[in-house]
Amino acid sequence: MPIITNLDNILAKRHMSLTELSEKVDITIANLSILKSGKARAIRFSTLEAICRELNCKPGDILDYTPDEE
Amino acid sequence: METQKLKNKKIIEFIFWILSILVGFVGLGLTISVVFFFLTLFNPDFEPFYPVTEIPLKIFENGILELNNGEKYNILIDDAYISFNINNKYGLPGILNLIFFELILLITFYIVFTLWKIFRSIRNSFKNDNPFHPKNIWRIRKIALAILISALLNIIYPIILKFFWFNDVIFLNKSFEIKLNFDYGLDIFWALIILVVAEIYRIGLEMKKEQELTI
User: Which of A20, B59, B106, B115 is the most exposed, fewest CB within 10 Å of its CB?
Assistant: First the structure.
């Protein structure tokens, strides 16, 4: 998938665990794990907003685009 | 929204219990017919009350239709189905007729039982709010296939009877020719509709998966 997530990098920089983030944004650990592992197919703006708010970052810090090699 | 969910749950529950009773009845009928099948096979003197065959006849007879109010009208009867009892005393046609009857009953039981499994999985899925179970797609397709097979059997069977075994049917001092009947061709249309339903269900399952992977 061309869109990749850098959630684990940001969490490490902020010294926050996935469990702490899930409690703060009210999203289950299972769903955050799906996002972190790159298996997510889509993310709601409300979810992105909540994550950016808690991690004090921009959406571009969490999401990146790498085109598929042909 | 919650009231609608509750209503849907009650409807599914109701259909599930109707199907449960139907499965019981058809299963019982199938078991009894199999017992009679073997009794007939091994004891030629045994006369069961079925199987019977529905044979379409070429009829072109004048008749009178009497209404409830006493009025009478002349009519022309141009189609009729007759049923009678055949067992293995009639040789191979008798045995094949028994097999045909058992096949139709088996297909009916399979359809009702598969429908029951589908509704059971939908009923059990209400806890997860997800009625889309992958196995149900194939179950719906199998119901369509069973209906198709049943329709083909019902079309082919009179053809076999007419061209290989039976000549005419004589009753009321008249001889009637067996007619080919393609009415069951309509069941092929229903099978196609059910295949479309299976596709819609498959799309629903994909959308549900997409939704689950939307964070």
Answer: A20
